[in-house]
Amino acid sequence: MKIAIVNDLPTAIASLRQVLQSVPDYQVVWTARDGAEAVSKCAHNPPDLVLMDLRMPVMDGVEATRRIMKSSPCGILVVTASPEKNVTQVYQAIEHGALDAVETPNLEHSDRDKSATELLTKIAKVRRLLKQSHPTSNLKPFDVTTGGLSPIVAIGSSTGGPKALAAILSRLPADFGAAIAIVQHVDAHFSAGFADWLQQQCALPVRIAVAGDRLEKGTALIAGTNDHLYIKPDLTLDYTPDPIHYSYRPSVDVFFKSLAQHSTRKGTAILLTGMGRDGAEGLQSLKQKGWHTVAQDKESCVVYGMPKAAAELNAAIEILPPDAIAALLLRTFSR
């Protein structure tokens, strides 16, 4: 796997090199000290993965991510010190196509092994996503009984999802007439910051879903752990680690397939931009149960992977850009 390091601190570059050397087929093909240099090097020697810092001279990591994904797209993992303090920049980078974020390992700290392991785990996850090698056919629907719920809008998203989600939710009123559930591929470490960031973009209340919650009209709940969100027989929300080896966490398919078991209340399910196929089978299951299903159009996607997989399965009744999705929701669930 060809990996590039973008960081203005020599000590950080050295630490990253040292961690990467522990995996035989990880090859550092080049390093860059600022975003502008990274954009240029990506154009001439594209790697499989870029480890991108955020705060750098000349051009920061957010702008570099935007330009790389536009001109020479590749996998980008944000690797930065104190990601909690840079949560706005983290999600700006994810808006433009970064796949995930992790803290820069500090090999002089007492927990050096832990920080190195976290980085390698993230890289391995991104590698699986880039190869799109994990099948979805082993996912089984949850056994959920029928029952009454508020009208539901279920949304799944991944790479580029925050931008699309903000574009949709920002157009909805605070008294929106349906409950909203969102499964965005994001590490639990950043889920609270993601909810706060999304809340700043819209009038609707937005918060992390916790075990025991019920979907509430006029509230957006976000999957907030590395386990999979699903709906239980008593119509409350919970998390499950299974399937344990599934690359996409939390999984859109797991949540969509749990919703597909309800027969008394139909809703709208939306699959947004993202890499891979997660959510496509779940969207198909919901369509078969009478839900109105929507996939984001290719032109507005940062990565046309998940919506494309849904289109190939004929799982989406409509193919729309985010502004048209928002208009559809307003027409369907206006109070």
Could you please describe the fold and organization of this structure?
By secondary structure, this protein is α/β, with parallel strands linked by helices. It contains 11 helices and 14 strands. Helix 6 packs parallel to helix 11. The longest helix has 20 residues, at 112-131. Mean pLDDT is 88; it is low at 133-148.
Per-chain topology:
Layout: E1 2-6, H1 10-20, E2 27-32, H2 35-44, E3 49-52, H3 61-71, E4 75-80, H4 87-95, E5 100-103, H5 112-131, E6 152-157, H6 161-169, E7 179-184, H7 191-201, E8 206-208, E9 220-222, E10 228-231, E11 237-240, H8 252-259, E12 268-271, H9 280-288, E13 292-296, H10 306-312, E14 318-320, H11 322-333
Parallel strand pairs: 1-2, 1-3, 3-4, 4-5, 6-7, 6-12, 7-9, 8-9, 12-13, 13-14
Antiparallel strand pairs: 10-11
Helix pairs in contact: 2-3, 3-4, 4-6, 6-11, 8-9, 9-10
Summarize the structure.
With 335 residues, this protein is an alpha/beta fold. It contains eleven helices and 14 strands.
What attributes characterize this protein structure?
single chain; 335 residues; alpha/beta; seven-stranded parallel beta sheet; 11 helices
